[in-house]
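Researcher: Please generate the 3D structure of the following complex. Treat every line as part of one assembly.
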Amino acid sequence: MFRHVVLFTWVAGTTDEQKATVEAALKELPGAIPEIRRYEIGSDAGVNPGNHEFAVVADFDSVEDYLVYRDHPVHRAVIADAIKPILAERAAVQYAF
Amino acid sequence: MFRHVVLFTWVAGTTDEQKATVEAALKELPGAIPEIRRYEIGSDAGVNPGNHEFAVVADFDSVEDYLVYRDHPVHRAVIADAIKPILAERAAVQYAF
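Model: Done. Output below.
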């Protein structure tokens, strides 16, 4: 399998509504992008200090399928419209497992 | 389920052997810590620029089981002996999904 992991921290003042918009928009992606095998996202639980605020873990059958997701117009729109406007920090890895 | 996601970037000059030592030590943890339900780790595939170098995605039945892992002496030893000496950056989220 091939996995995409990305962690986000939002800019100060980001509203709960903006965060909910991101989560809702991302949850639509498995329906729009059939290459997604698993898609598990969520907000940090606050168990440890210094964490990022949100995580996306997306699994694919291959790196090629991940690239379809990465470059898919529906995904790009979520990034441009919901994520980028409130993004302060981003950390990512893609790996085979 | 409860998930722990952590991404690492190693200090410049970290050897492949040191990286392999981290991976091998982490792969021992599911055998030592029965609370781990899924444990999928790996090095960044180099598909995108600016990524961290290594990812750990660990799943548990509950936040309590994650805390057993987090504070487990075998896990703490891997962090102290194999990870900390070569760690440049760390990004993490823990979330329910």
